[in-house]
Amino acid sequence: MQFDVFTLLPEVFPSYLETSIIKRARERDLINVRVHNIRDYTHDKHHTTDDTPYGGGGGMVMKPEPVFEAIETVLGINPDPTQPEPTSNIPIILLTPQGRVFNQSIAQEFSQHPHIALVCGRYEGIDERIREHLVTDEISIGDYVLTGGELPALILIDAIARLLPDVLGDPTGAQDDSHATGLLEYPHYTRPPEFRGWKTPDILLTGDHAKIDRWRREQSLLRTFNKRPDMLEKVELNKQDRKFIESLKSKVG
Known about the structure:
By secondary structure, the protein is of the alpha/beta class. It has 2 domains: 160 residues, Alpha/beta knot, CATH 3.40.1280; 75 residues, Trp Operon Repressor, Chain A. A 5-stranded parallel beta sheet has the order 2-1-6-5-8, sandwiched between helices. A 3-stranded mixed beta sheet has the order 3-4-7. A hairpin with a 2-residue loop joins β9 and β10. The radius of gyration is 23 Å and the shape is elongated. It starts with a strand and ends with a helix.
């Protein structure tokens, strides 16, 4: 899968992209991440990418010219100002607090694309013509504001990449993650079986995988019930799950 990232701060990316799972995925050509400096597409000696907003107000606004030129050049888009909507077949995603809030479902949606572009905003914001005539989607990582889109871009790359075949060592590793099933993930234990008097649940040491699977399912339901009960309204539950949830409600009630 190809990621093209457009940013004013390319130096932010290498340290994370050169570590752990993402590094191994790149080395195995499972993903390719290209980071493009928007300043390289300016044509003045100061490499200007921002200017004061029309109408006044604080902060600076990212100029449209270098952003359009960077994305159109890299993605091979033929600029056509007569088109009212963006014409790219590649998702061009603006990282912005105004976007739809990123979640596991959206990560799964993006993982189906062979190529996506990520646009990192900075300063007070971007010229609105970038939003209207260039980007095809807008994503927020939560209801708060950061100084730029670089951290959100890394979050999307990580979340999407781990859903791709062979990126994780365990081929089913992403299937049980929190939110992947609509529930929070069950607790994990490893050696030693007892630490400072705290024991691993006996069921995990039995080797009875059917009982372990059920225990894990119930622990996911319990953890979601306690921490994110709102998620239970959206997840598909079987009869056994619903019975377990009702037992939890009766204890609370």
